């Protein structure tokens, strides 16, 4: 018969049920802890990236300079939205950046841009009064690689914990 293999399965003893239940509970716990930890890491990384960009823009607005470890590339946008002397900006100014650069004050704006096959988180800080805007960007590619490694390591460690929990359940049930 089509489902004849079911009859050939070993009987579900109490030991087997305990091992399956124990491994199932540990699988759920490991998945939840992994998902929560990864989500918290991503959220914290994005918040720190944004904080770093705001700090860099504020430093430039106050007349300071950035070290090479600071968010790069950055540029000034004049009132017409054109890049300033530093042509390292992450792509051309879009309509919103041009509006901000024209001196339409208000809060800064975060954006994600692709430039030369790389992804940047960009912050535009309007200077108000027709003084243009400061635009700084931070390359997200390395952060994406780190997050991918964290996800892989979390999954591998989780699988090892699940396997150990199954073995522990089997040993306890003996």
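-> sequence recovered:
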């Amino acid at each position: 018969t089509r489902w004849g293999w079911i009859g050939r399965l070993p009987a579900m003893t109490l030991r087997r049920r305990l091992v399956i239940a124990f491994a199932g509970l540990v699988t759920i716990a490991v998945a939840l802890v992994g998902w929560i930890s990864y989500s918290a890491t991503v959220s914290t990384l994005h918040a720190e990236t944004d904080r770093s960009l705001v700090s860099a823009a504020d430093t430039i607005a106050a007349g300071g300079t950035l070290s090479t470890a600071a968010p790069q590339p950055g540029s000034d946008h004049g009132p017409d939205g054109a890049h300033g002397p530093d042509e390292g900006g992450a792509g051309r100014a879009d309509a919103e950046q041009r509006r901000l650069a024209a001196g339409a004050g208000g809060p800064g704006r975060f954006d994600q841009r692709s430039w030369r096959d790389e992804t940047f988180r960009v912050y535009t800080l309007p200077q108000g009064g027709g003084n243009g805007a400061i635009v700084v960007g931070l390359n997200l590619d390395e952060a994406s690689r780190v997050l991918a490694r964290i996800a892989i390591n979390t999954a591998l460690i989780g699988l090892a914990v699940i396997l150990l929990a199954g073995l522990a359940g089997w040993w306890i049930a003996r």
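The radius of gyration is 26 Å.
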